[in-house]
Design a protein that fits this description.
This protein is α+β, with helices and mostly antiparallel strands. Helix content is 41%, strand content 20%. The protein has a domain at 300-441 and 476-514: ATPase, nucleotide binding domain (Nucleotidyltransferase, domain 5). The protein has 18 helices and 23 strands. A seven-stranded mixed β-sheet has the order 17-18-16-15-21-22-23. Strands 3-2-1-5-14-13 form a six-stranded mixed β-sheet. Strand 1 (3-9) and strand 2 form a beta hairpin. Helix 12 crosses helix 13. The protein is globular and about 65 Å long. The protein starts with a strand and ends with a helix. Pfam families: FGGY_C, FGGY_N. It is an enzyme of class 2 (transferase). This is Xylulokinase.
């Protein structure tokens, strides 16, 4: 029997699976690390962190499996959206930390683009809009603020493409990663847009020339890497892609109308379509399956699970301590027990989960988090429920924006990620969105999708098997009609809060930025 490895590089951890031809998991391993946030709204990572984690994960699953190296036929890497990508020199040495999807520093560049570039032309060519989320704006930030790095940059490589290069010595970028850069990728022609590159002042030679499908074999494992990882030299290295699209593929989403919410550190909700309209405020890229025809169109909240973690770590020390005293204890479970008897709507509290600015559909790097409706009646439990509801409202906000451009959306919503462990949250999402919620029995996401792409790439599974996927969908819950009515009311308020607070948010951000600048100048004196 032959086996494949799927790896997923995430924002806070890397996971790897070793599976057989039917998707049965033989071994798995995860490695955690930290995100660098040197300034407010900055988020970056050195690729060495990812390299070390990928190496550890592959070594461990090979060791745990006990399989002969020759039985493992392919590796495929899925990765977080790497924003600008990794700037490397001609020796392929990283020159600067990767400005990842969460980074929001390129606001001046966004302003320049909005004032200078023909936006309708950019929307038409790329299928995407302009925001500091996109990699092309981050590239322009490096050009303006790190001219020494820009001058030495040979190529910008997405995280999975850089890892693939280390593994096999070949340079290639999959279409999902290229399309997600926005701004410089022609979504209809499936190639870099020379027109937009020239318009934006980004040299075409900085973009890797070889664009491939996510299931294409880009090269073969180098002998020195094989010896280090415990694998056979010549093992196929399959391209992979952006984690949200790969997780969507893992959930069996290969047809128009299928849609999935991936809720981890961030939240991504997406669906499959064959055309895109950038005016609806979502992000588009070629899907990782059937890349030449299908598009993965998605929206998301930057700080979804991150909002929950922020609240838990900052305000729930008692629950964390209590969980530590219990075998297998989880602070989230304790908190959920505390909020079960609080009615939908958190007794009048609305939470905006905009703790790192926000992506779709508001697209505002200066948006900030907020609790609205507080009174002396409210408790910490009310606030926790409001956080879960706020992320759920952000999901509905994206679904309603995305539905405007979808050919159709299925009646079932598939949810993957850490949020799927919570029965309460799954019911909340069903009630807020009005969709039947399904989850995946296997409890894995992008890493399994990467393994399936590896199997497709070497012919271990055919197209029919790929479309069905390796996962088992489990009906989780259906909307409660009473809760649905309450959430409709709360959601309408949620949608009104941001426009009302936007001017104040921007004033606060402006004052904060000025204070930070003064402090920085004082430190340098």
């Amino acid at each position: 029997m032959d086996y494949v490895i799927g790896v997923d590089i995430g924002t806070q951890s890397t996971k790897a699976l070793l599976v057989d031809h039917a998707g049965s998991i033989v071994a798995q391993h995860a490695s955690s690390y930290e995100l660098d946030t040197p300034r407010p709204l900055w988020a970056e990572q050195w690729p060495s962190v990812w390299c070390d984690a990928v190496t550890e994960c592959i070594q461990q699953i090979v060791r745990k499996s006990g399989l002969p190296a020759g039985r493992i036929k392919a590796i495929c890497v899925s990765s977080l959206y790497g924003g600008a990508g990794i700037p490397v020199d001609r020796q392929m040495k990283p020159l600067h930390p990767c400005l990842i999807w969460m980074d929001r520093r390129a606001n001046d560049e966004v302003r320049w683009i909005n004032e200078t570039v023909d936006l309708e032309r950019l929307y038409t060519i790329t299928g995407n809009s302009v925001d500091s989320y996109y990699g092309f704006t981050k590239m322009l930030w490096i050009k303006k603020n790190r001219p020494d790095i820009w001058k030495r940059t040979h190529l910008f490589l997405p995280p999975n493409a850089y890892i693939n290069y280390l593994l096999c010595g070949e340079i290639a970028v999959d279409h999902s990663s290229a399309g997600n850069i926005g701004g410089i990728y022609d979504v209809r022609q499936r190639c870099w847009s020379e027109e937009m590159l020239d318009c934006l002042g980004i040299p075409a030679q900085m973009m890797p020339g070889r664009l491939v499908n996510s299931s294409d074999v880009v090269g073969r494992l180098l002998p020195e890497q094989a010896a280090h990882l415990g694998l056979a030299a010549g093992t196929a290295i399959v391209a992979g892609g952006v984690d949200a699209a790969v997780a969507t593929f893992a959930a069996g989403v290969t047809s128009a109308g299928n849609h999935v919410a991936m809720i981890g550190t961030s939240m991504c909700w997406g669906y499959i379509n064959q055309q895109v309209d950038a005016h609806h405020g979502l992000i588009s890229m070629p899907h990782v399956y059937n890349s030449r025809e299908d598009l993965y169109i998605f929206g998301g909240a930057i700080a979804a699970g991150a909002s929950v973690s922020w609240f838990r770590e900052g305000f729930c020390q008692a629950e964390i301590a209590a969980a530590a005293q219990l075998e297998g204890g989880d602070a989230h479970q304790i908190l959920e027990e505390e909020i079960k008897n609080i009615a939908p709507g958190a007794d009048g509290i609305i939470f905006l989960p905009y703790l790192m600015g926000e992506r779709s559909p508001v697209w505002d790097a200066k948006a900030s988090g907020a609790f609205i409706g507080l009174s002396l009646f409210h408790t910490r439990a009310h606030l926790y429920r409001a956080v879960l509801e706020g992320v759920s409202f952000a999901l509905r906000h994206n679904i309603e924006a995305g539905a405007k451009g979808a050919q159709s959306l299925d009646a079932k919503l598939i949810v993957v990620g850490g949020a799927a462990h919570s029965d309460l949250w799954m019911q909340m999402i069903a009630d807020v969105t009005g969709y039947q919620v399904y989850t995946i029995e296997e409890n894995v996401e992008a890493a399994l999708g990467a393994a399936l792409l590896a199997a497709v790439g070497i012919g271990l599974v055919d197209d029919n098997a790929a479309k069905k996927g390796w996962v088992t969908l489990v009906p989780r819950t259906t909307p409660d009609s009473v809760a649905r009515v309450r959430y409709d009311h709360a959601f309408s308020i949620y949608c009104d809060v941001y426009p009302a607070l936007k001017p104040i948010m921007h004033r606060l951000q402006g004052g904060y930025s000025q204070n930070a600048l003064v402090s920085q100048n004082a430190e340098s004196v």
